[in-house]
Amino acid sequence: MRPSARQTDEMRAVSIEVGFTKHAEGSCLIKMGETHVLCTASLEARVPPFLKNSGLGWVTAEYGMLPRATHTRMRRESAAGKQSGRTQEIQRLIGRSLRAGVDRVALGERQITVDCDVIQADGGTRCAAITGGWIALRLAVNKLMKTGEVISDPLLDPVSAISCGIYAGQPVLDLDYPEDSEAGVDANFVMTGSGKLIEVQMSAEGSTFSREQMNALMDLAEKGSAELTAAQLAAVA
Q1: Does the annotation flag 131 for ligand binding?
Q2: Mind listing the pLDDT tens digit for each residue in 58-67?
Q3: Does residue 228 have a pLDDT over 90?
Q4: What region holds the Exoribonuclease phosphorolytic domain (predicted)?
Q5: What rounded mean pLDDT belongs to the chain?
Q6: 165 is annotated as contributing to ligand binding
Q7: Is 138 annotated in some ligand binding site?
């Protein structure tokens, strides 16, 4: 039934390569099927002005897609002189999601910026960015703890994200592009490793959906999130 021949509750293959770049304090290349995202975490001994002298740390994110990450070349947003509304929405989502799993007091008055660059897109780029972004964040925090700059672990719980949707009338897990472009309902779930919700984005893309269908998507998301958490912990072990 699915274009990929996957079962309705079957995710795409996930692979994670940590330490992918030389200079970033934390980095990984995450692949969810044919969606590939490079995530890096950079430490800075400063915080935004509104947090100065507060004792609180900050985690923020930036997101972008390379020109040929998609089927046809996209113009670089730097060449256009501004970010698209989609880019701004996604990077704010990534930042909110990652901060939800951080004890900002334990982090101390420093900032970690997580950059998520989509090398190849085939659906679910924001979910891959959040999932890989947490791994980069974890590796960067590990360095702070190793040097003794941070005593208590500020990362409270792993954070991951997964897409679900109603495709051809059936609830399915982890949409690729052919499914995403045809789905009647599209949803993204951001969850912690302990199964708590951080954010849910769900909308009808051509057909309405019932409470029962919403519950079915939630069940799929819980399964996918548990698998992603296991992959994250194995990658940073």
Answers
A1: no
A2: 999 999 999 9
A3: yes
A4: 10-140, 157-224
A5: 97
A6: no
A7: no
If we measure between CA atoms, which residue out of 112, 127, 109 comes closest to residue 201? Answer: 127
CB atoms closer than 10 angstroms to residue 135: 28
Place of tokens 């950079």: 42
**How far apart, in Å, are the Cα atoms of 146 and each of 141, 149, 150, 170, 227?**
9, 8, 8, 47, 28
81 is in an annotated binding site: no
Q: Is the full-model pTM beyond 0.90?
A: yes
Task: Convert the pLDDT of each residue in 164-199 to its tens digit.
Answer: 999 999 999 999 999 999 999 999 999 999 999 999
**Pairing status of strand 197-204 against strand 14-18:** unpaired
